[in-house]
């Protein structure tokens, strides 16, 4: 029952923690649609069956034992699952007790009742199947890797209800009500779970009972009205009960929990939630318990008092004078494995409650008064006994931890025993456990290395350290066995860096140790396990380990992580005969990495064989998910993309992002490829993954995939931004070189391959400027800039074009290239009517041994700039004896400005040449030359020359851009009706500057086209030799 619909507390129905990896693993296994495998097979057996593997490549993974190995049925003991059946003539009842049975959940499924028992242990169904209770037709058992389920078929005319009583799960079978009302439980599945977010899933009541409850609204549980009073710095809360009630009070995080072992209806007064001390309050009741959760983050002290039938809880302020007794926590070794007992008088049972603030489950043990508390938190490896103000609570439990209440004794245990400090702190290991024995292969790692020392870690560590120190004191000729034993112990306990230090010191003090394969092999193991693959290479390449098969496996493992898949496959193959000697978890990892490297080398037969070997090993669900991820990639490579997509989706549900992130990435990309998602949806999924999991090859692949999608969508800026971030963030990762190559290729494609031609010139310039550091050195980079400059000049964005070339001149170019580009920069300055900057660009880039064409171009531009600065004589000096058409053009302008019309007219007519023979309309530059020449001849009163010019060019008047100006200029000297005003207007229309600008734009385009043709031209054939 809920009295606060905003509550988010969930009371658990069982102490076991969920197993998300196992659930995801099973889904992946089913999607692969593989039959149950045979027991794990060896590497030799895998090699012997390679012919079969080769024949089944087209069949996917079905033939390679991808399923879980079949284990012999394990019948649970009565202590774990105890099924008790009650019978009479009209009804029946099933109760399930035990450490596993009490954690069962119950639901309805299409007229059947399903009891789910976590774990792989099978219940003993002999009695219930032989003699089922009234109302049950049949009992079936279904099992998978996670749990066993009892499917009870209910006879017609009967109804069921289920719940929890006295630490057991029950199913009650009764005749159906006369009105055929069907029971409702508020949830479709009817699981025995308490959830404050929606409704409590507990004992369902028939509809008739619900109707009766609506007629009589009296509460079904006693009402407890809280009495709240404010005190200095805190708040007092009183819980008056009608009879004795057991209570637990404790703080966890920002919340204060008050749990009673009786189902009551709490009445919360408005003064409870004041927003300062208590910010929120939620309560639930189910399974014989009532729990109140108060959000009180600012409260410091927490105290409890019991006055007979009234429990008082004080938040903050001065502590209550509770005269509390301290709980005794006692170690118990009587069963042969360590456990803990709590002496808690007045405790009867355990409440399993889910904490929404943390997301895990707590074992809460209320106790009756007087107050009994645990002042200090006791932290173990497998569980934590948190401090309490009343009662007891156990949190942070390993999945196999059991908490049971028996009278006044609370036992915390696990099948293999809790990890506790040794009973005798001075205990010493036997000498036999300290002796170093050579490994079968120098680079091999045994499973027993990680075994927990019976005498405790510190005792073993201290004994090994003493022995190693004694051995080291013997000098450089001392033996090495004790120090090797010390290093091996450190490796087994996960202290890889400490092991490396011990081995490095051994080699430093004993030069002959380098010649011992056991020393080098153990150092390889330590470095590989700590991820220092490069540091292991010298040992792996040494003569002592070059022929060691176990070391070859480690070499392949490191090469795979470094991206050298061809070398990895070669080394894996050389070391296969040692693989069966490794611990199961490393057989899985090495088999998976071998399969991945083979996949990268397109060797699907080997990849399929090795992933089958890996999946056939006894392993944790997490390790199996890693193997399924690689198997999905193999399936995709075989062409079954739809099946691979489903497996990726299943693996992506894992709670470990190291596995889920790459699986989700592959699923997103494959969904895009299969048209199951749009590019926008795929990019959103990839971008989310990019910030969810960072720092390894997965992020690099995400970046590369996003970049390719952006490019295909024409979103060039986003593509470059994503690829640039990947190249900069992973400079030490080998795959970053691929990202950088993709980035450079994308940039080249944009500005050399024409991909950016569809952008507006300003957009193209902005994109180039934002990523100009990607401009390649040499001819390609110059070509990029030339193309952009040409586009900018075409639309008269001269300032931007000049800025681009100026950067090239000042930062990127030298020698002839610098002088040539400086000439283009000077031309743009002149087009922008800035002759002073044009001269600066030319003078600052002077050099010797320039090609004649570049020298002539620079000379003409310098002369034009000087002419614009009203320095005609200097301009003529610069031109010197240059008789080229371009030089004559500049001379004509200089003479015109000096009013030397005779020379100007002669040069202009010479520049026109035989243009009059063509019937095509005059260009703006030629039209300006004709007008100026005609005006100059008129001013010189040279009628023959004017007549010659008029005869040749009058026919172009109708198609000229300034026809009137051309007619006036070509009119004879007697003028007729033409006035001096008309003649002056004609002279003013001769804008040779505009014609020169048009010519320069054409010249930029011609340079661009010539460079493009040169880039596409095939290379010259090699010279023949005699």
* Structural domain tally: 6
Count all strands and give the number.
33
Q: Helical residue percent?
A: 40-55%
The major β-sheet equals: 5 strands, antiparallel
Summed up, the helix count is 36
Mean of pLDDT: 79
What fraction of residues sit in β-strands? 15-25%
Uncertain regions: pLDDT < 50 for 5+ in a row? Answer: 1-22, 33-73, 178-219, 1015-1026
Radius of gyration: 45 Å
Global geometry: elongated
State the separation between the terminal residues, measured CA to CA.
101 Å
Structural class, from helix and strand content? alpha+beta
Strand order in the largest sheet: 26-27-31-30-29
InterPro entries: TPR-like_helical_dom_sf
Region (Disordered): 1-21, 1007-1026
Biased composition (Low complexity): 1012-1026
Description:
The protein has 1026 residues and is an alpha+beta fold. The protein contains 36 helices and 33 strands. Helix 12 packs across helix 14, helix 27 runs antiparallel to helix 28 and helix 28 runs parallel beside helix 30. The longest helix is centred in the last third of the chain and has 25 residues. The protein is elongated and about 140 Å long. The N terminus and C terminus are likely disordered.
């Amino acid at each position: 029952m809920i009295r606060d619909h905003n509550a988010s507390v969930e009371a658990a129905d069982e102490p076991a923690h969920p197993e998300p990896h196992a659930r995801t693993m099973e889904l992946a296994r089913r999607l692969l649609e593989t039959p149950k495998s045979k027991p794990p097979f060896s590497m030799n057996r895998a090699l012997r069956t390679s012919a079969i593997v080769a024949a089944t490549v087209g069949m996917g993974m079905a033939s390679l034992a991808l399923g879980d190995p079949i284990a012999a049925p394990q019948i649970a003991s009565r202590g774990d699952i105890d099924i008790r059946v009650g019978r009479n003539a009209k009804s029946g009842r099933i109760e399930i007790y035990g450490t596993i049975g009490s954690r069962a959940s119950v639901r309805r499924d299409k007229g059947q009742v399903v009891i789910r028992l976590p774990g792989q242990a099978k219940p003993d169904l002999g009695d219930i199947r032989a003699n089922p209770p009234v109302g049950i037709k049949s009992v079936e058992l279904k099992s998978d890797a996670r749990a066993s389920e009892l499917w009870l078929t209910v006879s017609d005319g009967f109804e069921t209800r289920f719940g929890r009583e006295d630490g057991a799960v029950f199913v009650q079978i009764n005749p159906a009500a006369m009105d055929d009302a069907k029971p409702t439980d508020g949830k479709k599945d009817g699981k025995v779970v308490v959830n404050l977010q929606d409704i409590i899933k507990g004992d369902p009541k028939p509809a008739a009972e619900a109707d009766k409850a609506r007629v009589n609204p009296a509460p079904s549980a006693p009402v407890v009205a809280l009495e709240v009073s404010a005190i200095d710095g805190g708040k007092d809360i009183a819980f008056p009960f009608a009879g004795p009630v057991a209570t637990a009070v404790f703080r966890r995080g920002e919340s204060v929990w008050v749990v009673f072992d009786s189902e009551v209806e709490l009445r919360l007064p408005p003064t409870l939630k004041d927003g300062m001390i208590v910010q929120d309050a939620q309560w639930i009741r189910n399974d014989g318990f009532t729990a109140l959760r108060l959000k009180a983050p600012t409260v410091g002290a927490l105290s409890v008092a019991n006055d007979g039938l009234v429990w008082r809880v004080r938040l903050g302020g001065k502590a209550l004078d509770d005269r509390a007794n301290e709980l005794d926590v006692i170690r118990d070794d009587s069963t042969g494995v360590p456990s803990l007992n709590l002496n808690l008088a007045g405790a009867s049972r355990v409440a399993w409650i889910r904490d929404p603030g943390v997301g895990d489950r707590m074992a809460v043990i209320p106790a009756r008064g007087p107050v009994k508390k645990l002042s200090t938190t006791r932290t173990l490896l497998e569980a934590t006994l948190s401090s309490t103000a009343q009662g007891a609570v156990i949190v942070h439990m390993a999945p196999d931890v059991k908490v049971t209440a028996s009278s006044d004794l609370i036992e915390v245990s696990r099948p293999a025993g809790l990890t506790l400090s040794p009973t005798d702190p001075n205990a010493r290991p036997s000498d036999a456990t300290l002796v170093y024995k050579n490994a079968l292969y120098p680079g091999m790692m045994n499973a027993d290395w990680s075994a927990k020392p019976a005498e405790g870690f510190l005792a073993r560590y201290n004994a090994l350290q003493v022995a190693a120190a004694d051995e080291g004191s013997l000098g450089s000729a001392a033996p090495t066995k004790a120090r090797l034993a010390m290093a091996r112990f450190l490796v087994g306990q996960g202290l890889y860096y400490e092991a490396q230090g011990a081995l490095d010191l051994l080699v430093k003090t004993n030069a002959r140790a380098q010649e011992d394969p056991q020393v080098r092999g153990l150092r390889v193991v330590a470095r590989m396990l700590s991820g220092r693959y490069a540091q292991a290479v010298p040992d792996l390449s040494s003569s002592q380990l070059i022929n060691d098969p176990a070391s070859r496996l480690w070499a392949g493992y490191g090469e795979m992580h470094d991206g050298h898949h061809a070398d990895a496959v070669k080394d894996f193959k050389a070391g296969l005969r040692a693989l069966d000697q490794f611990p199961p978890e490393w057989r899985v990892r090495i088999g998976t990495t071998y399969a991945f490297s083979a996949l990268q080398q397109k060797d699907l037969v080997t990849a399929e064989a090795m992933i089958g070997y890996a999946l056939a090993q006894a392993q944790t669900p997490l390790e199996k998910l890693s193997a399924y991820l690689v198997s999905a990639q193999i399936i995709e490579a075989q062409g079954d993309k739809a099946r691979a997509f489903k497996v990726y989706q299943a693996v992506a549900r894992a709670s470990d992002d190291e596995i889920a992130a790459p699986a989700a990435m592959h699923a997103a990309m494959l969904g895009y490829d299969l048209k199951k998602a749009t590019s926008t949806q795929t990019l959103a999924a990839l971008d989310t993954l990019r910030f969810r999991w960072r720092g390894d090859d997965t992020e690099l692949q995400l970046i590369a995939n996003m970049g390719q999608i952006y490019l295909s969508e024409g979103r060039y800026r986003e593509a470059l931004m994503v690829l640039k971030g990947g190249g900069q963030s992973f400079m030490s990762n080998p795959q970053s070189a691929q990202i950088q190559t993709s980035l450079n290729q994308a940039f080249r494609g944009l500005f050399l391959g024409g991909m950016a031609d569809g952008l507006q010139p300003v957009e193209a310039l902005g994109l180039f400027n934002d990523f100009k550091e990607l401009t390649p050195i040499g001819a390609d980079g110059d070509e990029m800039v030339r193309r952009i400059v040409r586009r900018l000049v075409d639309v008269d964005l001269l300032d931007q074009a000049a800025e681009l070339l100026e950067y090239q001149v000042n930062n990127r170019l030298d020698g002839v290239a610098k002088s040539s580009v400086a000439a283009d920069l000077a031309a743009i300055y002149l087009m922008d009517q800035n002759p002073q900057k044009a001269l600066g660009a030319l003078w600052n880039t002077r050099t010797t041994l320039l090609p004649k064409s570049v020298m002539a171009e620079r000379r003409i531009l310098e002369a034009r700039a000087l002419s614009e600065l009203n320095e005609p004589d200097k301009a003529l000096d610069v031109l010197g004896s240059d008789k080229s058409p371009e030089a004559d053009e500049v001379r004509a302008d200089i003479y015109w400005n000096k009013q030397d019309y005779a020379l100007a007219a002669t040069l202009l007519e010479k520049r026109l040449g035989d243009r009059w023979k063509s019937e095509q309309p005059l260009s703006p530059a030629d039209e300006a030359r004709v007008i100026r020449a005609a005006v100059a001849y008129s001013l010189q009163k040279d009628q023959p020359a004017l007549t010659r010019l008029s005869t040749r060019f009058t026919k172009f008047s109708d198609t000229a851009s300034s026809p009137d100006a051309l007619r006036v200029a070509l009119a004879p000297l007697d003028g007729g009706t033409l006035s001096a005003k008309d003649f002056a207007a004609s002279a003013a229309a001769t804008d040779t500057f505009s014609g020169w600008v048009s010519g320069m734009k054409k010249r930029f385009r011609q340079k661009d086209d010539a460079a493009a043709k040169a880039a596409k031209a095939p290379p010259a054939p090699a010279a023949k030799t005699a």
